[in-house]
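Section 3.1: Structural characterization of target chains.
Under the original work plan, the team committed to producing a structural model for every single-chain target entering the pipeline before any wet-lab resources were allocated. The record below documents one such target. The sequence was received from the expression subgroup and is listed exactly as submitted; it comprises 210 residues.
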Amino acid sequence: MGLSHRNTACTSLALFLIPCYTSPTMRVIAGESKGRRLAGPKTIKIRPALDAVREAIFNILGNIRDTSVLDLFAGTGSVGIEALSRGAQKAIFIDHLQSAVFLIRKNLALCHFENRAEVHKKGVSKALPLLSRRGLRFDLIFVDPPYDQDLVGPTLDQISREKILAHEGWIVVEHSPRESINEIEGLCRLQSRQYGQTYITFLQGSTLII
């Protein structure tokens, strides 16, 4: 067998052994950019919120016009972008992965929402104090950390400590069924819904957060 044939065989074997990751198709569900297709990740390190889950979240939230939104562990930015499409005034996106930041900016550009958004490449635990020092308060905070890495509780604790949730603002957490959410000072858990292997928990700021 010639060298070129060996290289072809090796390449074919490598492609067989390493399957390609295919991201689920994502679209904006409602509002100004309804139907707009969003760019998806090329790596399993970024787990996008499925269309059906996003639709369920916003059906429960109802009218979110003129709200300020914080999207933590933002991934593709699909949740915060859905909020902007439905009339949110501004959204800030936080993710520590450069590939995620690239996707968020690309998707914001696809929807022409760049002037209503900020994107920061930073870990959530480092970003929250900076947002607090800016005096920012958010009506909606989305939290979607990697599953089963003990990030949900500490993130909610820090949100409460930094007082970045507006009075009676909402927090929406997407998490694994194996992760429970304990009582957190300043936050009231309202309800949880299960969608396959995804739990969505809704919390609201109490009168302790002003």
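The chain has one domain: 25-205.
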